[in-house]
Specification:
Layout: E1 3-5, E2 12-14, E3 18-19, E4 28-29, E5 32-33, H1 41-53, E6 58-60, H2 69-78, E7 85-90, E8 92-94, E9 100-102, H3 106-120, E10 125-131, H4 135-140, H5 142-152, E11 156-162, H6 169-178, E12 183-187, H7 199-204, E13 208-212, H8 236-239, H9 242-262, H10 266-275, E14 282-284, H11 290-296, H12 305-329
Parallel strand pairs: 3-6, 6-7, 7-10, 10-11, 11-12, 12-13, 13-14
Antiparallel strand pairs: 1-2, 4-5, 8-9
Helix pairs in contact: 1-2, 1-11, 2-3, 3-5, 9-12
């Protein structure tokens, strides 16, 4: 396993991290699924342990994943391991009517941090993230003040922002221009490369970069086809329509040939493309099983410059239209 420096912090993170949304299990916001369907906690725990065995030292979760269950699992299995870097997030919650709402008030962030620490069985969170806070929240300043007070109090070591999936620019530019925070989490993969133009500015200003959704909810494993279906409690049941699956499979045909050339899986190819960017500190595929932990931890391939150029060209020529459809789907 390779390790990279996380921005201007003293954290050295494994290039493959553990995305822990899926192990949170099923959860609903009203009638909308916000989880990944049913999971087995023993299998999830085995996946965590197998990842650690493979050299993974960076685990990314959120208090909203499984409404706290993801954090609890991580805390139970590796919370007492000082070698493990745990990142979590704050700002998403359910209202009294069980609707999804955002809350970046100082009171909520402070209380939520204490609850996360308890679930994670930690005295301090290594990296705490505002969960998709928007520009208006940052301008208000209360959330920034809360994060800095938590850092000064020793409740968190470093903090950053998990950016919007489809428009990461306003919030990233706000923090970079003011040299606030330590890192960003953003969506970057073969299908969604909108954030690419931010890499240089982030890297030059010493921010760590976490690449999330590297497999685009499984589309980039090459394992889905027209017969694929998802249980009702799985958020992919409304996001990954047959049209989107078919469209992605067609657009990816010319990229998958690299998997044959390098004798790697489509999953490894997808992760490799992201890690070919040295600005990326770590990539966090969602992991639910020990088998996924093993596959996702395989050594990545260094592509030739011409191959990287070709992949970027395919994105511009074909993926952008597909991404627009994915954005409209939600």
């Amino acid at each position: 396993m390779e390790y990279r420096q996380f921005g201007n912090t003293d954290l050295k993170v494994s290039v493959i991290g553990f995305g822990a949304w899926a192990i949170g299990g099923p959860a609903m916001a009203g009638s909308i699924p916000i989880g990944w369907g049913n999971v087995d906690d023993k299998t999830s725990a085995d996946a965590i342990r197998k990842s650690v065995e493979a050299g993974v030292n960076f685990f990314d979760t959120a208090d909203f994943y499984g409404l706290g269950h993801s954090e609890e699992l991580i805390g139970n299995v590796i919370g007492n391991n000082p070698e493990i870097i745990i990142a979590t997030k704050v700002g998403h919650k359910l209202s009294e009517k069980n609707d999804f709402i955002l809350d970046y008030s100082k009171d909520h962030i402070t209380l939520a941090c204490e609850k996360s620490l308890k679930r994670l069985r930690r005295d301090c969170i290594d990296y705490y993230q505002l969960h998709s806070a928007r520009t208006e929240h940052l301008i208000n300043g209360e959330c920034i003040e809360a994060m800095e007070e938590l850092r000064d109090a020793g409740k968190i070591r470093f903090w950053g922002l998990s950016l919007n999936t489809f428009n990461p620019f306003p919030e990233a530019e706000f923090l970079i221009s003011r040299k606030i925070a330590n890192g960003f989490q953003l969506v970057f993969n073969l299908i969604n490369q909108r954030a690419l133009s931010l890499f240089k500015s982030m890297y030059d200003n010493s921010y760590g970069i976490i690449a999330r959704m590297p497999l685009q909810f499984g589309l980039l494993t090459g394992k889905f086809d027209s017969a694929s279906s998802f249980e009702k409690a799985d958020h992919r049941s409304f996001r990954l329509t047959k049209e989107i699956i078919a469209g992605s499979n067609k657009a990816l045909e010319s990229i998958w040939k690299f998997a044959d050339k390098y004798k790697i899986s489509k999953t490894t190819l997808s992760l490799s493309y992201i890690l070919n960017y040295p600005e990326i500190s770590t990539v966090i595929p969602g992991i639910k099983t020990p088998e996924q932990a093993i596959e996702n931890s395989q050594s990545y391939v260094q592509f030739e410059n011409e191959e990287m150029d070709l992949i970027r060209k395919i994105y511009k020529d074909e993926m952008i239209l597909l991404l627009d459809k994915i954005e409209k789907q939600g």
